[in-house]
Input
Amino acid sequence: MLIRIKNAQMAKKPDVVFPYSEIKFKIAQILERTGFITNVEKKGKKNVKLVGAALLYEKGEPKISDIKRISKSSRRIYRGVREIFPVRHGFGIAIYSTPNGLLTDKEARRQKVGGELLFEIW
Output
């Protein structure tokens, strides 16, 4: 999902579509709420569900400059609340999987909860 978004932005596509899962849809909603993408919606029927999102550009340049996957299946990265720091001096966000659900780095610090660092986006 993340690489599809990154590649679509680099190719200057207006929107991106990827297979549906609950976690991908929640991540897309967080990215919409933080202003990296817009118009997140479920598409398709019972058997073939998709998630569609419109990409944002500022003066012809992609809003997303890079996405970095941190925690992978071969190496999980967990951080406590005291180890959560701003991404790119506050210009980016990090997505954490916490006991309270998926949260950005700012929300995790505010709720004083740590978790698995999924990825960073700026």
Remarks:
- The helical segments are 2-10, 22-34, 105-111.
